Amino acid sequence: MPNIKSSKKSVKTDARQTVANNDYTARVKNSIKRCEKAIKDNDKELANKELKTVIANIDKACSKGIVKKNTCARQKSRLNKKVKEMSK
Q1: In which domain, by residue range, is 29 found?
Q2: What is the pLDDT of residue 81?
Q3: What is the largest CA-CA distance in the chain?
Q4: Residue 61: Cβ within 10 Å count
Q5: pLDDT per residue over 33-55, tens digit each?
Q6: Fewest CB within 10 angstroms: 5, 28, 38, 79, which?
Q7: In 3D, which of 2, 3, 5, 82 has the Cα closest to residue 43?
Q8: The dihedral of CA 67, 72, 75, 79: what is its sign?
Q9: What HEC string does 7-75 produce?
Q10: Residue 88: its pLDDT value, please?
């Protein structure tokens, strides 16, 4: 446990921020799983709907600095490609 007052405060704020970051990360991972499940089940309508939520969640996590920019672009590109291939 830190002795300095500002260090004590930063321990508390770090804990709160870690919880928030884990929430964003879980949201991204779960939405990707739901989208891939819709693709696997060959449900075009649900896959397109889930793709929109995935992209929104990934962009939000990227803007918060939780996921790197290129990782976001790669994930969105791969999912978009899978959805488009499914519609053929």
Answers
A1: 5-86
A2: 96
A3: 63
A4: 22
A5: 999 999 999 999 999 999 999 99
A6: 5
A7: 82
A8: positive
A9: HHHHHHHHHHHHHHHHHHHHHHHHHHHHHHHHHHCCCHHHHHHHHHHHHHHHHHHHHCCCCCHHHHHHH
A10: 73
The CATH number linked to 65 is 1.20.58.110
Contact 61, 67 (CB under 8 A): yes
Interval 8-31: pLDDT, tens = 999 999 999 999 999 999 999 999
Q: What total of structural domains would you count in the chain?
A: 1
Residue carrying the six token digits 């309508």: 45
Which residue type occupies 38? A
Q: How many CB atoms lie within 10 A of CB 40?
A: 11
Scanning the structure block, which residue is given the tokens 């896959």?
47
